[in-house]
Amino acid sequence: MSLPSPDAERGVYGISVAAELVGMGVQTLRLYEARGLLEPDRTEGGTRRYSANDLDRLRRIGDLLDAGLNLAGIAMVLDLETQLETQNAYLRAQKEEPPWLSTAAAPPARRARTRTPKNSSRPTGQP
What we know:
single chain, 127 residues, mainly alpha, Multidrug-efflux Transporter Regulator, Chain: A, Domain 2, two-stranded antiparallel ribbon, 5 helices, 2 strands
């Protein structure tokens, strides 16, 4: 019998376990939190609890550090990645929406017609 895997968003790992799983020091995890690179869940008593998503984010931070980025650059990259994921999810949702749903909600646009008075003449050289 296999146990159900925890929700990827739910904080289940203590700081020492999380640090060991990602190969970083406990103080490093505290530093990243202080710099705003991640925000682990907290228990009622204030103990940090890291989720599977937090661990993935810590591994991504480590990869970016290995690539030569500083913490400010890493913060910018992570923010841009989050924005890109949000926009991609929106576009996927739009793509999956039935075409009749978007056209049924809005009335068809009408093209404005301009009329020239019967007695007016157009200037020469213009169509």
